[in-house]
Design a protein that fits this description.
alpha/beta; TIM Barrel; 7-stranded mixed beta sheet; binds iron/sulfur cluster; single chain; 391 residues
Length: 391
C-alpha cells in the first residue's frame, strides 16, 4: 500500500510520493542546476531542489523517467512530457562569489545545502584510502578534484556563515569531519568550528563525529554551545557494516549506543541523530527493530536511501526502490511519532533539514500513527529540512 492509497488526494501526498520516486530513480537534468554537490563525507551525491516548496536532494541520473527542464519562470519536473511538479530556488548562492582576505573562495570553505550551511571541516579520514574506507563515502573525492581545501579554520567558517546567513538565508549549520585516530575522533575540532559559527552568526549548529573513546568529550562539545550532534552508525545490520564500513564495525554497535545515550543526556531527545542508509543489502526487519531501539533512547534515526557518490567504492550500486524504502519510512515514522520526535525537534543538522530523506514527509503527510500503520492526514504543512555536509 502506498502513501497515495492511504491519504486523500492532495499536494502533500502527491509530493511525498514523487519525492520518494525521485530519490530512488533520480532526475535527468536538462537545464542548469546550480546547486549540486559531488563528493564530501558520507553517502550523498546530489542536486538540491525545492520541489513544490519542499527541500529535496535528488541524485542525477541519465536514465530517469523524470527530467528537470527550464520554464519561462523557474523550472519544472516532467514525466512523459507532462509536468508533475514546480521547482524553485536552485540559483547559485551569492556568497559563493566571495573570498577570504587570503584569497580562499567561500565555496571551498562551506556550501549551502538549500537553507543549511554545510562543511566537512577536516577533509581527511583515517579510514580513507585503506581497507577501512566506507564504501559509500566520497570524502577524498572533492579534495582531489580541487573543490575544497583540506582543513577549514573556525575563523574561516565563522566568516562564511555570516555571509551565508545574510546573503542567502542560511538557517543553520551542519559541520562534519573525517574520523581521526585521536581519542576524541575529531569531535573537539569540529565543535570548535561550530562554536565559532554560532558565536559569529547566531545559527543553530549540528556537529558530526565518530564515537569518542572517552565520553567526557561529549561534555566538552556540549559546553561549547553546540545544539545537536550526529554520530552515524550508517547501517544497523552487522554483516553489512562489516562489509561497507569496517572501521565503524570495529568501533562496535555498543559503542554507538553508549555514545548516543550520553549525548541524549546532554543535548536532549531528538537532538542526537544517526544516519541509517537503506539499500546496502541490510535486513529490513533488523533495521526497523534497531531504529526502534534508537528512538526508545531519544535518538533520531535519519533513514536515507543510498546515494552512491561518484568516485566512491559503491558508486555503481543502485539506489533502493521506493517499494523498499517506503514501508521502512512508515514504521520508523511511527516510532518517532510515538516518542514525540520529528524534524522540528532536531533543531539543526540533517534531521532538521530532511532533504535527503522522505522520512519526515511520510510522518507529516500520512499522519502516521504510533503503530506506524497510517491514519488521518496531519494538518501540519510539509516540513522543512537539510543534508549531509560536504564542501
Ligand atoms: S568514517 Fe567513513 S563516512 Fe566518515 S569520513 Fe571516514 S570514510 Fe567517510
Amino acid at each position: 500500500m502506498t502513501v497515495l492509497d492511504q491519504t486523500p488526494a492532495g499536494t502533500s501526498s502527491r509530493t511525498a510520493e514523487l519525492i520518494m520516486d525521485l530519490q530512488s530513480v533520480g532526475l535527468r537534468i536538462e537545464t542548469t542546476l546550480e546547486t549540486s554537490r559531488t563528493g564530501g563525507a558520507g553517502p550523498s551525491d546530489s542536486g538540491m531542489l525545492w520541489i513544490e516548496g519542499v527541500p529535496v536532494t535528488v541524485p542525477p541520473s541519465d536514465t530517469s523517467p523524470y527530467s528537470l527542464r527550464a520554464e519561462d519562470e523557474g523550472q519544472g519536473i516532467f514525466r512523459d512530457g507532462v509536468k508533475v511538479a514546480s521547482v524553485a530556488g536552485t540559483k547559485r548562492p551569492r556568497f559563493y562569489d566571495l573570498e577570504t582576505a587570503d584569497g580562499v573562495p567561500y565555496h571551498q570553505i562551506a556550501l549551502l545545502h538549500l537553507d543549511s550551511l554545510a562543511s566537512t571541516v577536516v577533509q581527511a579520514c583515517n579510514y580513507w584510502g585503506n581497507s577501512d574506507q566506507c564504501g559509500f563515502c566520497g570524502i577524498g573525492v572533492s579534495l582531489a578534484a580541487g573543490n575544497t581545501i583540506a582543513k577549514k579554520t573556525p575563523e574561516m567558517l565563522a566568516e562564511v556563515a555570516v555571509a551565508a546567513r545574510d546573503l542567502d538565508g542560511a538557517v543553520d549549520a551542519t559541520l562534519t569531519t573525517g574520523s581521526s585516530v585521536a581519542p576524541d575522533r575529531g569531535a573537539l575540532y569540529v565543535a570548535r568550528c561550530g562554536q565559532a559559527v554560532k558565536e559569529a552568526a547566531g545559527l543553530p549548529v549540528e556537529v558530526q563525529f565518530e564515537p569518542p573513546r572517552d565520553l567526557s568529550v561529549l561534555d566538552q562539545v556540549h559546553d561549547m554551545g553546540i545544539d545537536s550532534v550526529g554520530v552515524h552508525i550508517e547501517s544497523f545490520d552487522p554483516a553489512v557494516l562489516a562489509r561497507v564500513a569496517p572501521g565503524k564495525f570495529r568501533t562496535g554497535m555498543d559503542a554507538y549506543f553508549r555514545t548516543w545515550e550520553r549525548a541524549v543526556q546532554l543535548f536532549g531527545e531528538g537532538r542526537v541523530s544517526t544516519y541509517v542508509i537503506l539499500g546496502m543489502g541490510e535486513d529490513p526487519d533488523l533495521t526497523v527493530e534497531m531504529c526502534r531501539r534508537a528512538v526508545d533512547i531519544g535518538v533520531y534515526p535519519f533513514v536515507v536511501p543510498l546515494r552512491p557518490v561518484a568516485g566512491s567504492l559503491m558508486q555503481d550500486v543502485p539506489a533502493p526502490s521506493r517499494e523498499y524504502t517506503e514501508p521502512i519510512y512508515r514504521k520508523v515514522a511511527g516510532f518517532l511519532a510515538e516518542r514525540g520526535l520529528g524534524a522540528d525537534t532536531a533543531v539543526a543538522g540533517c534531521a532538521r533539514c530532511q532533504a535527503c530523506s522522505s522520512l519526515n514527509l511520510v510522518q507529516q503527510t500520512t499522519g502516521v500513527t504510533p503503530c506506524g500503520t497510517g491514519g488521518a492526514p496531519a494538518a501540519a504543512p510539509l516540513l522543512q529540512i537539510g543534508k549531509r555536509p560536504g564542501a
